[in-house]
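name: query_chain
kind: protein
chains: 1
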Amino acid sequence: MRFGIRLLATLPAVMLLVPLDSASAQHRRGLTDITPPLRHGFWLNAGVAAGSENVRFSREAGGWGDENVQPAFWLDLGGTVNQHLRLGGELNAWVWDHRDRDTGYRLTDYLAGALLTGQFYPMSKSGFYLKGGLGLSRSGTDVEGGVGVGETGFAYLVGAGYELRLGHSVFLTPAINLMNHRSNPDPGDPDGLGTMHERVVTFGVGVTIQPGR
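structure:
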């Protein structure tokens, strides 16, 4: 009899503990694991920026010309070697759409690049990275009506950024980059300007996604 009374007395406490343990287990199963490793597998990054562009020619006095700030865009994708290194490819472009005051035609000036890039992370658990790249670039002007001129050359890119983790596989990525384009003059260099150098410094923000593991 006494045993039965003791059993009945402990039942309420047992009944309270069971729901608590069940709720705790359900809560744990619902957690999102965002612990290291931070970087893994395939990744993709897209961003927009303000790009400051200017030009100089090797035979022209005066150095770099006036800065022209216009929109810029980029798209990167690649793979993760380890916690310190990501390799990939990048497409980026600086674009100025405007109407020529003298002719009245709408013009689109641009500098675009296609580069192989590497991102180095000095600290494995930090989102800070240094970036470098080499590739092909084209500087040109498209004129309303389908006519356009331009020069194809080589480019290098240097930059830095920081990956701010928003979720299991999504990062907000503020970044600063410098892309420098170099193209040789047409045969004979009729204008006598020499080699063209064009650079764009971009300050922007992107979103990095790394699906899967």
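note: The mean pLDDT is 82.
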